[in-house]
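Task card 7
Instruction: Convert sequence to structure tokens.
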Amino acid sequence: MITKDNIISISKMRTDTKAVLAKLKSHQPLYLFSRSAPQAVLLGIDDYALLQEMIEDYQDTQELLSISQKEIDEAKDFE
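Output:
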């Protein structure tokens, strides 16, 4: 959820990059704004790795479910 505490302007990013990166240690995403419009989301590296792992797990589960459904459909054809 976007709040005033997790919005960072591009100018703030330019002038105080170290402080912005330090804020990422809170494990909360930061929303990068330009001209009052959201442009990007910044995540700490550990949070990004966790998100990638979750996506891969989800994709693996979906693949297994689709294979199982295919096998069920093929078994019905033999009846």
